[in-house]
From TrEMBL, chains A, B, C, D:
Coiled coil: none annotated. GO terms for molecular function: hydrolase activity, acting on carbon-nitrogen (but not peptide) bonds, in linear amides. It comes from Terrihabitans soli. This is Amidase. PANTHER family: FORMAMIDASE C869.04-RELATED. InterPro entries: FmdA_AmdA, FormamaseFmdA.
């Protein structure tokens, strides 16, 4: 049995665990050292640090403090890792805790976080998903279940100072183009709720003012929310500081491409069993700027899909120029309309798109002026047949259950 | 043997074939009628109508007349089809002609068409791909071959007048925001090179001035360039006019998600074996705005990939807000840099991304401010191992061959 | 376009084509020579040489002359090939003729050929399968259609004299253990209907008396009837004579593991597009006795199955010792009983098992005294849901159609 | 968290656990009752009850007491289950214990158990396989690792008295044809080492004399050793006694088709998370004699294979009539010869075939006199390239390590 290097207490506060941090900064001290070739286990809390409960009340989603996220376990140092190397990480397995076999999916209020379809679902809603062996189902979304494509939403190495400064500079520049926007254009450093791991005293206070928020994916990987970076895959991370400093969290039992619900995926606490290696000088050898990875040999194999197209004409009929974001939004809205014909509420359909292993493909990006995106909805996750027929759809879902909503205050 | 309803002459001009047209207009007369349940064969020229030759000179790509594209075969009428129905099309098979077993891929000059990476590849280049049974390879791009995911880039039903007007209005509005741009923001109606099929005289002249260009995908489908709408798949098209009026063309032997080279895919002439059916009133029954489709049970199964990430920070380091287009461009550029380490020129790497069955996934669209896109490069298409190793890449490609380039005049 | 080295005339007699032969003998003259690296096309008649017709009368199956089979096209010589080499054959594509888009499946009479379930289906029956693009369906077996896993049932190099003698000796020894058996234990040389290709005169007469029959698979490959040796695959054949002498035939549009109906698969005439190469001394290098091969990257991907188990207790309840043949027969009989609950006749169910891409797995061969075999029936080939439910099966098939039967005379 | 209904102590004797039994008999009392729709966890010891140790000495394999096997956990009763029903079992997950992350593979001595290739490997050998997350590797077989296709080798419902008598009668009849054979033709009831669960006193003594051994698969399923009846799959078991009486054990981390090494697979202790349901009267509704099952949506996806053919001519050159058992043995021997060219010992190659997810297909069973079987060896489990090339194989394995052997005493 591999050693568990970092343990978490789901009943305590993440702030009390000095092997957890919630900002990116080069000076956060490494908490455990391993050798290349070692395999070990890392536990993590859920991304919010336990703010969301397993109940039928979405007010916790509405009132979430997003300045706290994401709580990451680490950094782990790998002996011999130096800037310019590639840190090779095998995800030997990822799972939930036996005494915490559930996860949550939510839509944030447009006033506090928002999401991909926030104009259509502006108020906070929450669904709870039970984990039954390799499968999941929800008391709030009947008629579906599927095998988990379990993965960490967030993992990467510590940036060096130069990269950190670059992140802060470019994000601030964007933020300043519309500083009053809700939701904001970027999440800037915010010292008040920073957890700087084992940094203490004035050093920690100073670092907290400049530590990059964990929200976006960046050159080091970070919050990529790539569903296929799942257990069984192998990832090659750029190293910027001595030892690498690998941190991780934001575990998902399952998620669709795009993590469109933002309080996205089926969010859970859990553990990762990792093995590490090094490619010395790998960044230059392979011309690497962002992580690259290889898919897992073992993951859910849902082959049959209904595929929805979207183009970059928005809900108001306005033409946009090769905008894949808008095209994918249209494909998602098309899928939601389709699912409603079988009896689902819009919120249930939206929750399915955010949690099931749907694929989002960039299908066309050159045919001016319309980008084309496709949303691939697996048919096998439904208890009934959702394929189109000459007879038309049957309302299998009776509408008695919906996703709990908490009105804005 | 199914009947061939539309034949083409690869040695003649597409303008001389009145079962071909190159604009969308509700009044283009249906040239063949079929019954629901029928299967039949339709031949098509390549999208440019034969402007590009099987040689080693890219000047034809540089000088292409894009106002002529795309030459479509049709419209085919289906008896009983009425506005609001869904036309069910089974792609029983799609293929090249036995005497024309080749296709082309090109990068247009930035001055005449451009492409996804036109800032990086601003001049015209062309590669020729031979078709050998189910496989393809190119004398301009050594070291790769793969099985074709053969599909029509463009297929859809005729719009009605209201939809046509909507298309023209919204695209003109976008065009007018920067009318002098090169390449333009939208391709507007252009009568001079219009081919209105069997419309004749003044009717044809008038329709030519308002016929929508075939370049973008739209509500009816059209130029979606979705690689997975391939032979063996089933598509459900919205019907807007009596009989449907199904037209098609722009056959591709293979293409990557995004068709990033624009003169994209491996472009070819060929034939489609189709079977048609109807879902009466299907648009309302299933809430359909754009076509939906089901994947094929038989298509190339390249499972192993190297996956490249890209985020929405552009080449100059500027931060963009959740822009998947830019994120995917970065993923593509990352893949090109990687392939260059094995000896490929940038142009060869770009050609591979445009022609091989690469996947482009919308991986994250909510983690402000960075969108995250992934480019999945199948490893099995290479004659050598392109996986990262501790030793670093080996230059398998000696650089003696490159993709022909024609300088701007 | 690759050259067609061997052409066939479906309206003529295979005996009139001297590029066809129906026995294995080292002295059959090579009819075409190719270079390593060449690709070329070979046409073949169906395995019976046109004895079976596209009609609804099974008397041709009942009266078939099995001493004539299989009519093979070849031998093709590869320059430089010598005994001990491996001949590398890429199946670039395989297909039916455009003017002969159909195939047949039959059960031979127990008195003339028999088959895997001949005790259960002792009389001749025949079903005709239409080829529609990549798919097939039958007017005799309603409710099913699928994509073809097209392959040659029979391909291999000429044996040398020593190998030929070994074949004849060991098969004669088996035959002699029960010489009067019907069907016989082995098909011995039979000069009367032999077609020795370009051999003429006394040489041909002598060779006909010793030429091995083409019925069984042997060390060189031959009549393996392996459904996965399909278009897109690569096979490595042992070479025994100078030039190799590759011959082939017995094309199948589709077949299940085991080819259980014997007049098995969906038998058709057609063509193969091949590419050849050599591994010099490959037999010793890799310790090769029988051919090895690699699967195709493009073949039907039917993933969902109902899996039937069978054990080596026969229909009479008698226990056999680890007999996989009997176990697989029980699994097939179990599947037939299951399909009958949906309205199929036994003959229709048997025809489905012989023609659809069912898998037959050797599941357990050590748990004395029972072997365990499994029959994997793809569910996606049915127009209706054949999964078990609490409600029980619904008779989707009304029984009005059956597989034509010709009574023994 | 589901309840664990049956717990085991890996440090104690299986005989001391009255929720374990090692014979099939209708009167073994049900130890736990569940409702249809319930999910629950069952722990099991390894099939030998801990006789085999995690060390480098094969004497425990040589000296194993096979009369004790298999130790099964159960029987579990399902309320409402009656003879003629189908018991629907979802394998929600299956796994090893965190403190016992290893398994063993062995070849029994020909004098004590034997195996599929016992003539070639007549003495006891043992390899130990470590479980690292979803993957396994062995210190005795270098150069390979793969993801586990975890499954119970043995599961089924209690027989009724009539079925038990039929089993004993037919197996005794076979045994009596050669009573002195080693290994024996069948494993007959043997009271001395019987563990009859909660049966006590004279009842237990009598039942032990007639309880069927657990070695072979039979009508109820039992020791099928079907690798694809894995976690995530759904199985439909015939019910013969009130409550069903479902028992299970013999967990495998991985196994190839055929379980050819007999002390086969990677044998381990562990747990199953099951969910149960009922189809009332399902045996008659669907014509079920043996269990049927549906594959898992999540299992290792090794797609690329080298495929070895075998025909029913034995090692001595003798011709057998359509004997799939012999054909598969030849395919296995061919694969072993091939792997030896890369440096593996024969025993290592044999161990790979027994433990890796190799497929064994019944390819041809009608082409007299040769059956044809194929062995599919996944290439992706090797750390190096095992495909054939013009250069020939490279000895990646240096032969310093081998599978421990214990000579017969």
């Amino acid at each position: 049995m591999a050693d568990t290097l970092i343990k978490v207490d789901l009943n305590g506060s993440a702030y009390d665990n000095d092997k957890i941090h919630n900002r990116w900064h080069p000076d956060i001290p490494i908490v455990e050292w391993v050798e290349p070739g070692d395999d070990f286990i890392i536990e993590t809390v859920d991304w919010t640090g336990g703010q969301i409960k397993n109940d039928d009340d979405a007010s916790d989603v509405r009132d979430v403090d997003l300045s706290q996220v994401h709580f990451l376990s680490g950094p782990v140092g790998v002996k011999g890792a130096e800037p310019g190397d590639l840190l090779v990480v095998d995800f030997l397995d990822v799972g939930a805790f036996p005494d915490s076999l559930w996860g949550f999916n939510g839509f944030f209020s447009k006033k506090n976080g928002g999401g991909f379809l926030t104009e259509h679902f502006p108020e906070a809603q929450k669904s709870i998903w039970d984990i039954k062996g390799m499968f999941t189902q929800s008391r709030h979304v009947p008629g579906v279940s599927w095998a988990g494509l379990i993965h960490p939403g967030l993992i990467g190495c510590l940036p060096d100072k130069k990269m950190l400064d670059m992140w802060n500079t470019r994000e601030k520049a964007l933020f300043d183009t519309d500083p009053g926007r809700t939701p904001p254009l970027a999440a800037l450093p915010y010292a008040e709720t920073a957890h700087m791991g084992r940094m203490k005293g004035d050093d920690a206070k100073k670092a907290a003012t400049e530590g990059a928020r964990t929200v976006p994916p960046r050159e080091h990987g970070g919050n990529c929310d790539i569903k296929d970076l799942s257990r069984g895959s192998r990832c090659y991370f750029p190293v910027y500081v001595k030892g690498g400093g690998l941190s991780m969290g934001d575990l998902h039992f399952s998620q669709g491409d795009g993590e469109i619900t933002f309080c996205g995926a089926i969010e859970m606490a859990g553990w990762l069993h990792l093995k590490v290696g090094l490619i010395k000088g790998g960044m230059a050898k392979y011309g690497i700027k962002n992580p690259i990875f290889k898919p897992s040999p073992i993951k859910p194999d849902y082959k049959d899909h209904i595929i929805f197209e979207g183009i970059s004409v928005d809900e108001g009929g306005k033409q946009h120029y090769l905008d894949v974001h808008i095209a994918y939004r249209q494909a998602c809205l098309n899928a939601i309309e389709y699912l409603k014909k079988f009896g689902y509420s819009g919120a249930q359909a939206y929750a399915i798109l955010g949690t099931a292993p749907v694929q989002g493909h960039i299908s066309g990006v050159v045919d001016i002026p319309n980008a084309c995106a496709t949303l691939w909805l697996p048919t096998e996750i439904f208890d009934f047949d959702i394929n189109p027929t000459a007879e038309g759809p049957k309302k299998f879902i009776d509408g008695k259950i919906d996703v709990p909503l908490a009105k804005d205050l």
